[in-house]
Amino acid sequence: MVPSEDAAPPLDLDQILADPGVRIVVCCGAGGVGKTTTAAALALRAAERHGRRTVVLTIDPARRLAQSLGLTELDNTPRQVKGIDVEDSGGQLHAMMLDMKRTFDDVVLQHTDPAKAAEIFSNPFYQAMSSTFAGTQEYMAMEKLGQLHARGEWDLIVVDTPPSRSALDFLDAPARLSRFLDGRMLRLLLAPARSGGRSMFSFVTASFGMFSKVVQKVLGAQLLTDLSGFVAALDSMFGGFRQRAEQTYRILQARETAFLLVAAPEPDAVREAAYFAGRLRSERMPLAGLVLNRVHRPAVPDLSAADSLAAAERLAGAGGHESTAEVLRAHAALAEQAAREQRVAARFTEAFPEVPAVSVTAQPADVHDVDGLRTIGEAISRR
Q1: Whole-prediction pTM value?
Q2: Which of 242, 267, 284, 362 lies at 20 to 30 Å from 372 by C-alpha?
Q3: pLDDT attached to residue 1
């Protein structure tokens, strides 16, 4: 048993999934720890076991979620998952994968007229920003969450956060994008649109003198023109960006949201989970618990690695017991690995002893279908 189960209260995920007051579950953590699989397994269990109309939003570019749910593809529109066992429960499961450019386009279409939207879409700076700008994916994940919540079509929304360098990027992106859009430089570029339509360069030259030459030299005249046009076109939307970000942030702070930290018993992953737990605490966001994936457990936990190796050596010395000795050595290696994982997991549970936790035994193969997701759901929900 890993320390997360000994030192922390057990995490009852079935209670969370069945609670009608919980409308959003956010799975967060470092990349490569099983967030996508965990999110899909929880969404499937919520639909099948607890009869909830559920949608799972993934940001996984590898499309593993689509394959495991038997879908040929996922896109920016929720698709219903067929062939799952919801006859008795009455639940539903939909799945979607974030398309950050389409989500950005939808925001523009919702908050401006068609002519202005066409102007924005054709702007080279917008085309680059909506596809590759740092933080756009995390911001649009928050934006899509807000859209899904506002539609009110689902009992439960399960979010698989982006595979960022830092999981905190998911929470920081709205503020970063808002600061960028409201930055002094962009406000200076926006001034011509508010000064009666004077050209960008005549305005800059008149107002800033040598500054304009430096800016043009660094950015290039065409890029500066594209940037100015982009900022001017989005002027009416500046407040909307900030307002929607703040609204979604309040949703994430509400009791209807449950954050689940997902980690593996590895130093970097546990360190990331601890950082995120501290941030959630400081932001007063509801941390429901820790899911520790890929935990190794020896079949005979009471047999220590030292005793197992000693027995293997005795058998090897006696001769004729090579197979048994090899089994004992394999057990010793697994026991040593389990002990290392316990020490790593303890770094989190000792820092946050009040956070409920559950550990999930490492699976022999990757999850690739609905049955595999059910198995993971059972393992996660087992107390």
Answers
A1: 0.81
A2: 267
A3: 40
